[in-house]
Amino acid sequence: MEVFFLGTGTSEGVPVIAQPDDIEIDLDNPKNWRTRTSVHVVMDGCHIQVDAAPEFRLQCIQNNIRKIDHFILSHGHADHIQGMDDLRRFCRIRDGHALPVYGHDDGLKRVREIYPYAIRDFARGNYPAFNLLSMPSKLELEGGTIQSILLPHGKFNTLGLVFIEKTSQKKFSYYTDCNEVPEAACELASGSDLLALDALRFKPHPSHMSIEKAIHTAKNINAIQTQLVHMTCQVDVGRDSHLLPDGIEFAYDGLRIAI
C-alpha cells in the first residue's frame, strides 16, 4: 500500500493570505508550505482519492497522480470539495465513464448543489461525471476494503476511513477533520500500520483536535506510525517536531509512505 499526502494544511492553507507578522513560521522550510488536506491511497494497484482541495490540480501534478478509480468525499466543507471539477481529467482517462463518488448524505448533497452538471453516467464535453454512492460501513474494492465510521466535526460529521489492502493486509486509518475520535473509531483503527490524525493547532478548537488531543488519541490507537494533518500556520514543523512523542510526526505536502 502506498499513501500520498497531497495536502496537509487547514482550510486557509499555509501560509495564509496576508500572513500575520506576529505568527512565527519558517517559510524557508518547504514542509511549512501546506495546501488544503487530501490524501491518495493505492491498494494493490487500485487508486483511491480522498477529497479534492482547491489546489487539487497542482497536487496531482506535483505528486504525479495519473489515475483515480474511486473518489471518497470525507465531508462537504469547501476545502475538501472545491477541487472536484478537476476530476474531469480522470473521467476522460476512464473513456468518459462516470467516476464513483462515495460520501455520506450531507456530503453528497453538497456535491449535487455545487456540481449539478456532473451528475450523470457519462462525461459530456469537457465536464466531469460523478456516480454518487452512499459510503457503506464496509466497501469492497478490487484492491482491498475500506471501512467507514462517522467522526464528530463540530456540528457536522466526517467520514473516518480505514483501508486494508487485499494482498498485504496492511492497514491505514485516515481520520481528518474531527474534534474527537470515539471509542468505536479507536477500536476500528487499532492495529494500524499507519494512522493520519487531525491536529489543527496547539490551542483547543470546537471542531478540530488540538495537537495535545491528537497525541492522546494516537496513543489510544497505538498505530505503528502516526502522521498529523490539517495544521494551521501556527505549527512549524522544524521548531515543533521535538514536542511530539516517538512514532508521531507532522505530515507535510508531498510525503509518500509505503507500508
Could you please describe the fold and organization of this structure?
- The protein has 259 residues and is α/β, with parallel strands linked by helices.
- The protein is built from 7 helices and 14 strands.
- A hairpin with a 2-residue loop joins strand 7 and strand 8.
- The chain is globular.
- The relative contact order is 0.18.
Note the quaternary state here.
single chain
Head-to-tail CA distance between termini: 6 Å
Main sheet: strand order: 6-5-4-3-2-1-14
Largest sheet: 7 strands, mixed
Our estimate of the beta-strand percent is 25-35%
Helix content: 10-25%
User: Which structural class do you get from the secondary structure elements?
Assistant: alpha/beta
Uncertain ranges: none
Please write the string of helix (H) and strand (E) elements: EEEHEHHEHEEEEEHEHEHEE
Radius of gyration: 17 Å
Total count of strands: 14
- From the spread of the alpha carbons, the general shape counts as globular
- Number of H/I helices: 7
**Residue-averaged pLDDT, rounded?**
97
